[in-house]
Amino acid sequence: MAAVLAGDALMSIKPPKFISRCLSGVNFPKDWWWALIGIKALAAAGLIAGAAIGDASVTTTVSVGVLGYFIFAIIAHIKARFLKQEFWVNCLGMTALSAAVLAVNAAAM
């Protein structure tokens, strides 16, 4: 999950079309796109740090935050009625991955 989030953060520096379409589709202000880079990078760092020190409570806490981020992304997509491929593949896929990572981290506690 940390690698996926770090990759997502790096791609978001100069977003490819599928990321731009997603953010524009939910009417997320372009002036704030930079904040998502920081959020994703910090989440990746938190997961790496938690794993490095072997503390499942850290990785579980970060995983809850990541899952929350993607749940709010789902809500944004639904509110904007932007339910195209980006929603079904990217948003729900990342939510499912986040939920699976949270389940693994919680089980390790």
From TrEMBL:
Pfam families to which the protein is assigned, alphabetical? DoxX_2
Q: Any idea which UniProt keywords this protein has?
A: Membrane, Transmembrane, Transmembrane helix
Q: Does the keyword Transmembrane helix apply?
A: yes
Q: Where in the cell is it found?
A: Membrane
Provide the membrane topology annotation: Multi-pass membrane protein
Q: Where are the bilayer-spanning segments?
A: 32-52, 58-75, 87-108
Q: The organism sits in which domain of life?
A: Bacteria
Name the GO cellular-component terms.
membrane
Under the heading InterPro entries, the entry gives: DoxX (IPR032808)
What is the protein's name according to its record? Answer: DoxX family protein
The protein's organism comes out as Corynebacterium urogenitale
